[in-house]
Amino acid sequence: MNEREPILSVRDLRVWYGTAKGAAQAVDRVSLDIAAGEAVGLVGESGCGKSTLGRALMGLTPNSAAHDGQILYRGQDVLQMTKRQHHALRGPEIGLIFQEPMTRLNPLMRINDHFEETLRAHEPNLGREEIKRRSLETLGHVGIPPTRFHQYPHEFSGGMRQRIMIALALVLKPKLLIADEPTTSLDVLVEAQILRLLKDLQSEFGTALLMITHNLGIVAEACDRMAVMYAGRVAEDGDVGSVFANPGHPYTRELLHSTISLSTRELSHIPGSPPNLVTPPQGCRFHPRCPDAMQICTQKVPVTTHPQPGQRVHCWRHGPDELIPEGGKAPLQQEFDHVDEA
Ligand code: SF4
Predict the structure, then answer these.
(1) Ligand 1 atom index nearest CA of 235
(2) pLDDT digit string (tens) for 140-157?
(3) 292 in a domain, yes or no?
(4) Which of 79, 148, 239, 322 has the fewest CB atoms inside 10 Å of its own CB, making it the most exposed?
(5) Residue 282 and residue 302: Cα distance in Å, rounded?
(6) Can you give the pLDDT at residue 334?
(7) Is 88 helix (H, G, I), strand (E, B) or coil?
(8) Protein residue whose Cα sits closest to atom 1 of ligand 1
(9) Can you give the residue range of the structural domain that contains 81?
(10) Total structural domains within the chain
(11) What whole-number distance in Å separates Cα of residue 318 and Cα of residue 176?
(12) Distance in Å, CA 320 to ligand 1 centroid
């Protein structure tokens, strides 16, 4: 796996939300490392828990959420931090770029006021000239000219607003940047510009990046490693090249095939839909949709295997043979047929 020293280590993290129908297991036993200067992509369908995980890393889950496990940032557990420690963490240590920049920028505040508010929240004694200097310097990095410094958010395009959000996250020089679907509402050209910008900034400042997205193309473009989430769990993680070349988990494989064919114009998709997280399926949560499912998949949580260096897969198909019952590698449907005949 990752050989560099991690600045962030997630260990067996679980997050539940209280709902009227019971506890929803939004994140279930997730472990993940991010090293300094590394870009990690977190992918999966909507509702798979990737945004909940991103928010949990900053201590931003709602009060109704319960947690278990550890989130170690430079050795300190984020889940055990006080409010004061969380405040010191968010911004100078871990920055967050939200999706939908228009809803995150205050329409009544000019851009200079957004920067002043952000900087003063962490450095209250900073002088006005220094605030201006640092703000303009950071805006320059994302291609916003000084002449736009006193304008309101509505005077900028969607792409420029997202650049401003990135600058607001970078002005405190965080060691880790979490970008949650940072290009969702942007057209493809602006998306390409934002991705290039994030890459350039990352190599210039050595910032680690966690890119949360449903778009595998973005991961291929911007990340060194990736983790694929399904129904709150990590199905597979590893180097981007290894996972794309040899996806070990059936869900990753199906996700990579879920594209429009240029020749037939047909959309290939994964049949079925993600499970209800209040009552998720037993065993492997993907088994009701998995073309490779076996009987054991309906009963036991899959073991972790390493099909090749730099790759970790949670799937019974890669499990040690001694753990798989005789004839257990037959497709699940055939096994059900056999039981019916008996
Ligand atoms: Fe499919 Fe079983 Fe692997 Fe889950 S554990 S992905 S159901 S083969």
Answers:
(1) 6
(2) 988 899 999 999 999 999
(3) no
(4) 322
(5) 11
(6) 38
(7) helix
(8) 293
(9) 6-230
(10) 1
(11) 33
(12) 14
